[in-house]
Amino acid sequence: MDSAREAVFDEIAGLAASVCDAPIAVINFVDRDRQFFKAEVGLGVDGTPLETSLCAHALLEEEFLLVPDTTRDARFACNPLVTGAPHLRFYAGALLRTPEGVAIGTMCVLDHRPRSLTDLQIRTLRVLAQHVMAQLERGLACHKATLAEARQRAIVDNAVDLAIVTIDRDGMVMEWGAGADHVFGWREAEAIGRHAGFLFTPEDRAVGRLHQDMVEADRNGRALADRWHLARNGRRLWSSVELTPLAGRDGQQLGYVLVLRDRSEQHRVDTALKAAEQGLRWAQQAGRLGLFQVGEDAILHATPEFCRLFGLASATTLPAATITSLILPEDRATAAPLWTVPGSAGNPAQQEVEYRIRRAEDGAVRWIAHRGERMHDAETDSDRIAGVVQDVTERRAAADTLARSEQRYRALFEAIDDGFCIIEFFDGPHGPSSDYVHVEANAGYERHSGIAGIVGRTLRDLAPDQADDWIALYGEVLRTGEPIRFERYFEQAGRHVEVSAARVEPASRRQVLVMFRDIEARRVAEVALRASEALAQENIERVQLALSAGAIIGTWFWHLPTDRFTVDKAFAIAFGLDPALGREGLSLAQVVETVHPDDQAGLAEAINAAIARGGPYAHQYRVRRADGRYYWIEANGRVDHGADGTPLFFPGVLLDVEERRAVEKELDRTTAALRALTETLEQRVAERGAELMKTEEQLRQAQKMEAVGQLTGGLAHDFNNLLAGMSGALEMIGTRLGQGRLGDVDRYLIAAQGAVKRAAALTHRLLAFSRRQTLDPKPTDVNTLISGMVELIQRTVGPAIMLETGQTAGLWTTLVDAGQLENALLNLCINARDAMPDGGRIRIETANTWLDRETARTHDMPEGPYLSLSVTDSGTGMSPEVIERVFEPFFTTKPIGQGTGLGLSMIYGFAKQSGGQVRIQSEAGIGTVVRLYLPRYDGELMPEAENDDARIRNRTGDGETILVVDDEPTVRLLLADVLEDLGYGVVEAADGMSGLRLLQSDMRIDLLISDIGLPGGMNGRQMAEAAQAHRAGLPTLFITGYAENSVIGSGLRAPGIEVMTKPFAIDKLVARVAELIAQGRGAA
């Protein structure tokens, strides 16, 4: 046992680790003063001192030792292998017992974390322990056989009565040993060159006995016989003969070696003793354990071992009925007749039965294997049964356990819908590993592949035209050990299949595991999804068209408690008002002055009704613009009430409905004309049909514009809620500061900051949805990103949701904006949580996927390598009708106030901008799978930048001066305070022209920080461009509430020019300022 490592035990240890999902598995033997490992996985050592052995404690158990947590077990808590490296926290071991019942070691698994095992894993570990002992017993038997052979060879070489003769393939004698001289009497010179037939009797020569022996030796490796041979003096010799093939060093057969021992004297002795030993020989043929004989007198003659098996006192003879009484009643019908008089009914001549007994000594139930044979004694002319019995209780239990296990695994193997097979490469005529054979496959594999009877058949036999491609694909898996996953269309089965393959370890087995998964249903769902995406794209285009076409011509916000009515520039222009007044606040009377006199009363009534009831508001009226003409507009908004019913906020938008009113007027006119011409309709339908269709199309276009107002009303409501949270929190901070109560200030600060962040997230979602959010793609390890978010996601979804991850090893890198991907993943998990109000399961998975041309076409993506990120929930699922609209902007199934309807639209926009795609598969009552496809990036991962916000905040200026240009005094105040605290000099300007005058002066300015949208006729971008003529290379930081590309395009993205989107964290601003100042010093 204390010998070199052997592959079979390494495989058993590896199997134990795999079955028990443990990082460490050991086959060990414990001696009086040491413990050594026959095989191990995960430790890297060949033994441990006995005083630190965990397995030594297992030897004190009956069969199995399970320690879920070693730190909580007094026997192990202070063990250095527990308290120190390798920090073993879990132990489970099955005892290794010899056939005599002596415990010599364990088959055990260990882990670095507390845990337990399932009943199936415990039973499997015990079976593996039995398998280890079986391998040891087999090795011991082989060792004994080798020693016996060596001893026999020594005896043969020194025995003068052993004849050794070498003959060629034709039977001619080539060598004649010294023993042959003694046995046969012929000298070597007389025998060499003669045909060996002269050693055989005439009757054997007549039947060609030597040739028969040669044939048998070639077939079986040797030919054995006991027969007569001839000596030189004519005497017959009873000989034991062995003929074995003789091969040269090159493996070519040279002839045969004939070994003959003269057993004439023994043969004579055997003949004399034949009668006495007849019964014993028959018993030895039947078995080697409990021997018995039963004669016609029904008296049992038994050995002491036989009596021990049945729990009886040792006796030479006893009535056979005694054994019958010990057989369990359930088995007596089969076993009892075996113990009756030989030849009686039910007592066959050949007996091989297994039955149960209850031992007389202790009442234990044992299984007995019974083998017997009826023989006739010619001397007494009587029959008797001679045989052997053996206790097979443990073997039966192990066999039953193994059979049940195999039955369960086979049932599972055949029942799973996914296809499963194992292929084994071999060297063929086309070269090394040029073909493979299917060694195992389930019904699902044959169904998916469309090929029946696949087991045992080679690839080149099944698909010779495609063999090279498949062999190259799976051969790479075998060579590198890297798993693959891809999709393929199988013509034989007429379906699309997802194929994954992984190498079966160890690699020397040359086997690859292949899984087929039917994705036909998924592809059908993807077709439906593309239709839904087309609808979503149509809605997106509607929104973009409305924005670009100017259908939304202004917005307002009315704070009802203070009666402060503020509007944007476009609203002021629409009503012919001064834009400056719109920002500072107007009275409703000032706005109503420009409304057509005929419409003022109706407008006032509609406004009062909306304020009284709350909720949506829409009203059309005419307003006088700066050119003096009246235009039709539609006001669309929403009135929000407080908890006590008090009106609080009234936000809204203005829509230009002049064209729609004209279309409706034209439609009314056309309808009236058609009624007037009803009698001549048949004659005029052809010439009027085209005009009517054109008019209806104009109406539908106008209705599209109307939808924009409804969408914006919902958005205004969400912003209204966030503004209410910020306003309330700030008012409470002021109140607490005035009261001197500082303990609650942090709570209100956190609430206000949270509202700001949610408002920013809403704008970012809108920008991503409209394709205007600028991404910052970088090479990203998605597995690492997910691992960093697990704790955040679990806290977000709550304890009622079980979060699982399945991250593919060797996941490809992708070029993506990591922050946006984190937002998308968190959004998907929140959606999944909301779909499981009573709790459930969320699983996040990653995989490498190769999309071929056909699959990529159905996914609306270029073919090639992608990684997939999927979020699966066990929630309520979605109906086909909901799935069709799921990517529409502002579409949501959540109650009012719980969702903007922008989440999935944002994810869709992010995936498309990243060069990928998003797909949804859902079934009502079952759950939902959302899968993001992102293209593989072949470059290297970029090292993470140093993140030391505290170090950056502690930096101080070195006399640098920063110009801050922003039309919002609050923003200028905040920036100035932060920068002056850091030691920078700060100069402020409220508009573009003021900022430009400072930039064109001789004042020292080391950095420009400017908003993009500025009053005074010059925006921030124009001011920065003009400043370059006077201060070339001046570092510039734009801060804006819009996305980058929507405000500066790509023309100014030169070195030293950066953009930050409002709102932003102060630490991020400080870091960006420090970087730009440092760049400016380097350029100088």
Task: Report on this structure.
By secondary structure, the chain is α+β, with helices and mostly antiparallel strands. It folds into 7 domains: 144 residues, Beta-Lactamase (2-Layer Sandwich), CATH 3.30.450.40; 110 residues, 2-Layer Sandwich (Beta-Lactamase), CATH 3.30.450; 115 residues, Beta-Lactamase; 103 residues, Beta-Lactamase (2-Layer Sandwich), CATH 3.30.450.20; 155 residues, 2-Layer Sandwich (Beta-Lactamase); 162 residues, Histidine kinase-like ATPase, C-terminal domain (Heat Shock Protein 90), CATH 3.30.565; 135 residues, Response regulator (Rossmann fold). It is built from 35 helices and 39 strands. Strands 28, 29, 30, 31, 32, 33 and 34 form a 7-stranded mixed β-sheet that branches. A 6-stranded antiparallel β-sheet has the order 3-2-1-6-5-4. Strands 14-13-12-17-16-15 form a 6-stranded antiparallel β-sheet, sandwiched between helices. It is elongated, with a radius of gyration of 47 Å. About 5% of the residues have low confidence.
Structure in a nutshell:
42% of the residues lie in helices and 27% in strands.
Question: Keywords, please?
Answer:
alpha+beta, Beta-Lactamase, 7 domains, seven-stranded mixed β-sheet, six-stranded antiparallel β-sheet, 42% helix
Task: Give me the secondary-structure topology.
Layout: H1 7-19, E1 24-30, E2 34-41, E3 47-49, H2 55-58, E4 64-67, H3 80-83, E5 90-97, E6 103-111, H4 119-158, E7 162-168, E8 173-176, H5 178-184, H6 188-191, H7 202-206, H8 209-220, E9 223-230, E10 236-247, E11 253-262, H9 264-286, E12 290-295, E13 299-302, H10 304-309, E14 317-319, H11 321-326, H12 329-335, E15 350-358, E16 365-377, E17 382-391, H13 393-415, E18 419-428, E19 431-441, H14 443-449, H15 459-462, H16 467-480, E20 484-490, E21 495-504, E22 511-518, H17 520-549, E23 552-559, E24 564-567, H18 569-574, H19 579-584, H20 588-592, H21 597-613, E25 615-624, E26 630-641, E27 647-656, H22 658-676, H23 681-739, H24 745-769, E28 778-780, H25 782-797, E29 801-806, E30 813-816, H26 818-834, E31 840-851, H27 853-859, E32 864-873, H28 880-885, H29 903-913, E33 917-923, E34 927-937, H30 949-953, E35 961-965, H31 969-981, E36 985-989, H32 992-999, E37 1007-1011, H33 1020-1027, E38 1036-1040, H34 1044-1047, E39 1057-1061, H35 1066-1083
Parallel strand pairs: 29-31, 35-36, 35-37, 37-38, 38-39
Antiparallel strand pairs: 1-2, 1-6, 2-3, 4-5, 5-6, 7-8, 7-11, 9-10, 10-11, 12-13, 12-17, 13-14, 15-16, 16-17, 18-19, 18-22, 20-21, 21-22, 23-24, 23-27, 25-26, 26-27, 28-30, 30-34, 31-32, 32-34, 33-34
